[in-house]
Amino acid sequence: MKLVDRAKIDDLDKIVDLDTEVIGNSSRRGYIEHSIERGHCIIVKNDYDIVGFLIYDTNFFECAFIALVIISPSNRRNGYASLLIEYMVSSSPTTKVFSSTNRSNISMQRVFEMNGFIQSGVVENLDEGDPEIIYFKSKR
Questions:
Q1: DSSP state letter for 139
Q2: Cα(19)–Cα(53) distance, rounded to whole angstroms?
């Protein structure tokens, strides 16, 4: 059974373990903890295990911005990212929701497009030679 909900501080260690599995270190622990405390971290579980999480903020021109979507490698391509995004958009505190991904990240581009996001611009010079594509979706 797939369950999506806001993360609680008791979930912190499991979320950080998942993030560490994906990026190779626990450097984002403080960021994740702060996001949970603000209510800006959403988790998805498969039965009892956290298999993914999403972090957003509202600092992007006063609009919601999905800053991070992490799914455990063994659970990718099973709809978990879409569940997180759908939940976030439906509960977004703003009517406009933005996110971004690198031009090289074709799989994340497909996730955004499958979830009704459209391209809204490009930012150069964040990652050399790999522009960031901005995506947009209206909550309406």
A1: -
A2: 9
Which strand (E) or helix (H) includes residue 89? helix 80-90
For 39: left if phi > 0, alpha if psi spans -120 to 50, otherwise beta; the answer is: left
Q: What is the CATH number of the domain that holds 12?
A: 3.40.630.30
Domain that holds residue 77: 2-138
pLDDT digits 0-9 by tens, 36-73: 999 999 999 998 899 999 999 999 999 999 999 999 99
Beta carbons of 111 and 85 less than 8 angstroms apart: yes
CA distance 19 to 27: 9
pTM reported for the whole predicted model: 0.93
Q: How many structural domains does the chain have?
A: 1
